[in-house]
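Wait, can you check?
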Amino acid sequence: MILRRLTFTTALLAGMALAPAAAVEPFNADYSATYMGMSANAQMSIAAAGNNRWTYSMRVNNRMGSVSQSTTFDVVDGKLRPLSGTDTSQVLIRRRSTNSTYDWNAGQARWSGDVKANRSGPIALRSGDLDALLMNLAIARDVPAGRNLSYRMVENGRARQMNWQSHGREAVTVGGKSHQATRVSQTDGDKQMVLWVVEGIPVPVRILQKRDGKDEIDLRMTALR
């Protein structure tokens, strides 16, 4: 799929502790988007899933294709912990779907669906590991708190370290109101993710994913409910 399970998507925590007071709360956010070079609509949300679990979802779609991602997670010792996820993309009639399972009792993550045999796992889990989608929440919490932005991401059959760099603050507009946002970025080979974070908003207000220096997808928050 074009959109990586972010942070756009999408880097897992390497031992990052989140402040206990930073409780998870439901929200719905709307974004204007550019996807595959065309205008698109996007939404993000967190909803209660029962048993102290939450589901974080993101969807981007236009007339050419769509990306839909979701992660069900809980919070243990202040850390976001992925439990399961789905990732579906469609470009015209071509569709691809994968499922992920994070078994913390067994200490393993596995993937099924449209995945290669060498990317199905298992991958050993470490305390603090995230999937790429949950990294949005982790970074939105860590940046205002001044924490280290180094994470371990367990995604698509492999684990890798991701280190984010801060590039200062700049003005952004959300729902007609101006905010000061901190811009952070991370580069992984030919891919780059750039996020804009505003203190008090639980997800990045802008997410830009690039490949080979070209924009793949650009999400800009228009409303938070």
Summary: Residues 69 and 87 are 5 Å apart (CA to CA). The first helix runs from residue 134 to 145. Residues 1-21 have pLDDT under 50 and may be disordered.
